[in-house]
Amino acid sequence: MPPILTLIASFLVLIALRVPIAFAIGLASIMTIWQLGIPLTSVVNQMFASINSFPLLAVPFFLLLGRLMNDGGITDRLLNFADATVGHIRGGLGHINVMVSMMFASLSGSAAADTASVGGVLIPAMKKAGYPAPFAVALTAASSVLGGIIPPSILMVIYGAFGNVSVGALFLGGIVPGILIGLSQMGYTYVVARKFDIKPQQKASLRRVAETGLSAAPPMILPIVILGGITLGVFTATEAAAIAVVVGLLLSMGLYRAIRPSALPRIFSDSVIAYSLPMFAVASAGIMGWLISYLGIAREVAEFILSITETRIGLTLMITAFMLIIGTVLSPVTAVIIFLPIIQSIGTIGGIDQVHLGLIVVLSLMLGLVTPPYGICLLIATQIGNVSTPRAFMAILPLIGLVLAIIVAGIVLPALFMFLPWTFLPDAFPGR
User: Which helix (H) or strand (E) holds 223?
Assistant: First the structure.
């Protein structure tokens, strides 16, 4: 059997046997390496090389920051501020859901954390207010994907680390699509609220808006610190993440006094465990990604796609379709590491800017978080809302369509996503 068939077949069999994805990737790769007669020490070398990256150190810091937000009561302050500012608009609870996800995304970079923390509060509240349960679940899951789009984004950090792409440029490029997706979701929420005649809440007083705004303002300096420091060249994305954690500790322990020093060992240990699980998947995926390059699969796939179309738009659309399919069965992190050689080969041959390509890939893969069978954010939301996955998926289809429309707009008009990186990080585009 050809090595490529061994790799694919063994991986699919292991998945069918419900072997955890990280182990399935690693074992399938080991079988292929053994068939090729390559020393098995290459497995250890490639696993180590996959995680031996300075930019990847930003990931545990962002995970820790998300944990500090929840335990430090920062999420509740964001909810109160969103309620005071947009709660009076028709569909107010839905708007609060989206707005909090946008603010949460700018602080943690984790979509699953967003779904669990925000959904636990707002899904029951939306159901009680008269929203259809499938819509409440769908909106929560769909808005949570902003955690991987609006900076800081853990997936963008990993893409930049493995693809040798400027993380700062990816962060800046994620701002516009993230805002567009959030606004489109709020617009759809308004339509649904009118359809089901959901009455708006009473408008908050200016005093309450000011009070909740002042309470939520300190955490919102974190995105400014992260993006401002990276853009000005003061520090790297990893250093920015570490500084953000220090600021988060000062806020949660000093200003808000919501976390006691005695709780820190537990928070740190939980964050280490939360970091170790995806990093093992990263290490395993690194082996398969290396095999794909070693076997020349990237070149063959690129040549096949180029035989169909050679236009920039056509190639980008095909990559988008491929990522949408892959995202339904693999986590975004795993998909990036495995298929990055293929993605970047096509981008290079097609003359697609690597930052723009990275943004399109990230946007496409984030939809995998709400599409079964992987769909981790959708699954979390369905458990909170006690809604079946098929009903929730049917309710989320219009929201997926909105994201796809924004992706296509970004493909046809690259400047829509790229004008911020072009303006503030011109050094990342030496050939432009």
Answer: helix 221-231
Three-state DSSP at 424 gives helix
Closest CA to 305 of 346, 344, 357: 346
pLDDT at position 108, please? 65
- Tell me the C-alpha distance between 389 and 133, whole Å: 12
Q: Which two tokens stand for residue 215?
A: 């309470």
CB atoms within 10 A of CB 99: 22
pLDDT value, residue 182: 95
Tokens for 57? 């150190």
Q: pLDDT for 306-343, tens place per residue?
A: 888 888 999 999 999 989 988 887 888 888 988 888 89
Whole-number pLDDT of residue 408:
97
pLDDT at residue 52, as a whole number: 82
Alpha-carbon span 386 to 392, nearest angstrom: 10
How is residue 352 written in tokens? 């697609």
Structure tokens at 416: 């829509």
Q: Which sequence spans correspond to the domains of the chain?
A: 1-38, 53-428
pLDDT at 109: 62
- Using alpha carbons, list the distances in angstroms from residue 181 to 149, 156, 178, 377: 10, 17, 5, 17
Q: Which of 105, 25, 107, 99 is nearest to 291 (CA)?
A: 25
Long-range contacts, stretch 252-259, CB < 8 angstroms, 24+ apart: 252/68, 252/69, 252/71, 252/72, 252/73, 252/74, 253/72, 255/218, 256/72, 256/73, 256/74, 258/71, 258/72, 258/73, 259/68, 259/71, 259/72
C-alpha pair distances (Å), 289 with each of 297, 311, 315, 335: 10, 26, 21, 9
Q: What pLDDT sits at residue 283? A: 86
What is the C-alpha separation between 92 and 115, in angstroms, rounded? Answer: 18
- What's the confidence (pLDDT) of residue 432? 66
The DSSP element (H or E) to which 9 belongs, if any, is: helix 3-16
Q: For residues 369 and 144, is the Cβ–Cβ distance under 8 A?
A: yes
Q: Which segments in the chain show pLDDT lower than 50?
A: none
Q: What is the pTM of this model?
A: 0.86
What pLDDT score was predicted for residue 314?
Answer: 92
Given the structure tokens 């290079």, which residue do they identify?
348
pLDDT given for residue 200 in this prediction:
80
